[in-house]
């Protein structure tokens, strides 16, 4: 009989008893036609024989993303690969699209062990893992390609290891990050061609103190607003602008109420996947290896398509009537030189126990 999550928790008990002052220059990222992506393992890390004597175990997985979003695709692909790799011995009962609650609900349930595995963007985790605020460093990734960023986020380096330790400190185990140098960009009815154009810009942001501090530092007026209200606020002129990934802008039909799509590249569009640490450590080693392999393969497959998808969504916005605005390296340099932005880098580095400096150093070393 297939065992449930309760068995996994029991296994965990048995095993237990047995035993940012940012970079001074930023250049506009290149847009290669065929971006590199992390390669899946050349050969299976585990074989069917490794699971022959193991009990069947079912884990629960979840996300709160919109239907068809990258988080859902990633979670469901991981579940499919785990099933395939283990021949159905380890399975994930996956619940996408907020079936088990919103981000905070799912994170808390994962921390408590009611949910084993979850996929989400990085921002909702900051209240649980303060070190995740390192992803709030504005434009820190803007000059790097997807393969370079991946080698830092998913590689063996001081930054990744420090962040993984922060996960474990609060009961999680980091499995990996999904990105390919795609970003949150700015849509607006005002042509933002120079730093001066941001002065007084009424822009909807997430309710994130670091994001708001960045926009304030460059002269804009950030306004947190519930997502269902954003379209109407833009349509009526209550707000001038908002910031999101291209795929989100297409889904919200912002081309109907916004004139410009500005490639500000201020925040990396990134999803993370994690598992309850007690549950992970309680799994037999073969199941841990199978899960790690499934995540690596899923990240490689979906990651390879992210930039292509991003470019297609930007084109949909342009075809819908928006003008795309891009920037020279000097634009990013000027923003990073603003004293308020430099102060924000220093603050975030302090808030994340030095991970801001470690991230910048790892990126520069990997480039």
Q: What is the fold's blueprint, element by element?
A:
Elements: H1 5-18, E1 57-63, H2 70-86, E2 90-95, H3 103-112, E3 117-121, H4 146-153, H5 158-169, E4 172-178, E5 183-188, E6 202-205, H6 209-217, E7 221-224, H7 230-236, E8 241-245, H8 246-251, E9 260-268, E10 271-276, H9 277-282, H10 285-319, E11 323-325, H11 329-336, H12 339-351, H13 355-366
Parallel strand pairs: 1-2, 1-3, 6-7, 6-8, 9-11
Antiparallel strand pairs: 3-10, 4-10, 5-8, 5-9
Helix pairs in contact: 2-10, 4-13, 5-13, 6-12
How does this model look, in words?
The chain is α/β, with parallel strands linked by helices. It folds into two domains: 5-19 and 43-130 and 145-179 and 270-311, 3-Layer(aba) Sandwich (D-Maltodextrin-Binding Protein, domain 2); 183-268 and 312-366, D-Maltodextrin-Binding Protein, domain 2 (3-Layer(aba) Sandwich). It is built from 13 helices and eleven strands. The chain has helices spanning 5-18, 70-86, 103-112, 146-153, 158-169, 209-217, 230-236, 246-251, 277-282, 285-319, 329-336, 339-351, 355-366, and strands at 57-63, 90-95, 117-121, 172-178, 183-188, 202-205, 221-224, 241-245, 260-268, 271-276, 323-325. The strands form two sheets. The chain has a six-stranded mixed beta sheet, sandwiched between helices. Helix 2 packs antiparallel against helix 10 and helix 6 packs antiparallel against helix 12 (339-351). 47% of the residues are buried.
